[in-house]
Amino acid sequence: MNMHIALCLLTRKAFLILVSLAFFTFSASAQRMMKTINDGWDFRKDGETRWQPINLPHTFNLDAYSQRNYYQGKGEYRKKLSLSEIAPTKRYYLKIDAASKAADVKVNGQVAGSHAGGYSAFILDVTGLIRENNEIEITVDNARRDITPLWADFTFWGGIYRDVWLITTPEQHFNMANYGSTGVFVSTPVANEREGVVQVKAEVTNDADSRIRLKMQNRIYDAQGKLLQTNAQPFSLKAGETATVEYKSDVIDNPQLWTPEMPTLYRVVTAIVNAKTGEVLDEISNKIGFRWFSFDADKGFSLNGKPYKLRGVNRHQDQAPVGVAIDDEVNRRDIRQIKEIGCNFIRISHYPQDDALLDACDELGLLAWEEIPIIDIVPDTPGYDDHCEMNLVEMIRQHYNHPCIMAWGYMNEILLIAPTPDKPEWPAVRDRTVKLAQRLEKRLKEEDSSRVSVMAFHGSDLYNTIGLALGDVAGWNLYQGWYFGELPHFEQWLEDQHARYPHRPIIVSEWGAGSDKRIHSVKGRPFDFSMEYQQEYIEHYLPYIENNDYIAGCAYWGYVDFNVAARQESMPRVNNKGLFYNDRTPKDIAYYFKAMWRKDVPVLHIASRDWALRTGKAGEEHPIKIYTNLDEVELILNGASCGKQCTSNYNTIFRVKLPEGNSSLVARGYRNGVLVEDVMMMTLALFPDLHQGDELAVNVGSNCYFISDVSHLTWLPDRPYTAGEWGYVNGKGRSTTSEIYNTVDGPVYQTWMEDITEYKIDAPAGTYEVELLMADVSRPARQQANLLGKGDERASAVSKRFDITICGEVVEQNFSPADNNRYLNACRRRYIVNNNDGCIDIRFTPLQGKPVLSGLKVRRL
Ligand code: GCB
Ligand code: CA
Prior knowledge:
single chain; 861 residues; alpha+beta; Jelly Rolls; Immunoglobulin-like; TIM Barrel; 5 domains; 8-stranded parallel barrel; 7-stranded mixed sheet; 11 helices; binds (2S,3S,4S,5R)-3,4,5-trihydroxy-6-oxo-oxane-2-carboxylic acid; binds calcium ion
């Protein structure tokens, strides 16, 4: 029976049903189809013969976790892809969400295209190349010098570390050749409490070889999914033509505004419809938010007409052990966590991030500053500027529709490693930097005049004097009291800038201090990496930011500890300024932010999770800090009250006598008559008693406890010798940020007593094991330029040499901790000595340079 006869046999009604069914199935299959093709890839590094099976997202730089000079070069990816059929009327595309830094793509041996830039998506039309059975080959290169970033304080992870998509569309579709964007651009030209208007500019392509009549249909839904408006406008496209179709909605009355507290999202669904058949050919859905904002040099930031402090963090994307090869849910979890501590703002630093992150910002309510990674200095590499501009356009077009975005940035601390103005190379660097800034500023405004432009400066006045303060808002990255200067220099810097440039809005785009969970002090100092100094630094900066209207807000540096292969310090390869550890568990300090920023919930946190193992003498008082937004807190130790204390600056410190062993701590307070509690366990280990055979370990030359995360041994802060006790007799405390090799307890070696000639430990007579820890750091490794001048010890030409005597016995002669050229090497020696007179006396006799001692361990045998 042929079709014709069959149709004749049908009733009219059945015929109509059949036709509409046919259309339904036809139109469903005719529309855009998107799927990830992340699985089943092979990978090898350039020059390797063996392929290894991997899945995307993938990075080939897990070596950044273990070595400073991580692999920078090419990586090859390949995948077999079979399709059940190739439809002659369909278009086929590969969308690669990020390949760092550059990618060359082949399909079945033919060049499909290439891309420069490691942080934005690109789309390649592979229609002419694709078959039923395919091989896709992508060569990625993270060593290219013509693509930014070239210098920066983070690892330039190579790989295809976001999704790869196969997209098929009908011959008429939204433009797939617009800088990796969807080709559909949505904005809200009118947005206020009374009225909202949505505008859509859609680029539509006709890849067929004949003219076609089409309609662009837009449907607007409210947050509850109710259809508010629908509109269809006819247009036609010639064969091969791409045209922009514009639509402006009718007024939406009294729109619910988007705010971080109530991120109401409307939706606009834009479709291309075949005017003749009614068939939907392509469709893109966008979420929209009605909000407006402004920056003012005196009043700071305003959202929807009201003053609004921007409270934020900077976010890097990596998480061990996967590096930047993170899944979407990692992005979403991070945004939830950032919201949780009360942020309403995020600086997406220092490069465009995953769409999943931007979506989460829209949905959970975080205002965002996003930027491209032009960092530290502008090189004169040919092609660099063009790639920068292209990456800027990609970022803007790919993320244009996100209501969360309010600022686009394009340079970070761009004069940080530039030659100083007295150097002959300066004028050229200055001129090309200003030229590139002007070019990008202009392009940014052409692309998007509805957002502000921003740049982040480091603490140098040159930005003002050479004309780099050309953006709408000046971002200052300030580290007074950390890399240099003292804490009050922070507000002095800002006040001076505000006074001299009274019309320029200011945001504190970075501020932060490092901390290492193994390091603690009751009197922290800059660069000791104690958790406690990080708290002191933050407790100084944040109230100033909060209480001064002219500061639009801030982004703390940073949300998490993140990987920097080249960084050294107490945790080599980690920038440890995070409010959260790299695994996303909070540091205690995260609760200070939460206490300050969350007014909607009671916050009460015993800030001793990071330091739950204390060491002390029986009866000694220990500080227990509470972060809270309650006015008054009671602390209960092992069931007994330690009293109530009023809080100020969102904290209070109790001084409590912990008994030996485990204790329970309960913090208690009331908010609106409702009980709020926090509970934790702490442990006190008694101060080592050599009479009892305890192991005494001293972090010589340091004010800090060091609790090894491997042995769990506590190395006590050093102190001067007093009779009946132990300590140094002389010497000068020194420290380095250079990495110490061949140890897991680096920080013990990074602080030392220099020029020491004697160390004394009063202890009962007997046989002892005495262990000395030393390192010769007089040839420090080159530090990252980003360390803003810290850690540049001057290299000395000669190694240190000295004799060591313990209890009158010579244990080392002409000793050098750097023997065999082992500078920066952990050197640890153990001696068995007899103490006959109640004092273990350790003496150092200098032969060349100054003797050093970094750590000391004593145990009675
Ligand atoms: C900065 C940089 C940032 C660094 C940070 C730091 O000023 O913008 O990339 O990671 O300081 O910790 O030194
Ligand atoms: Ca030490």
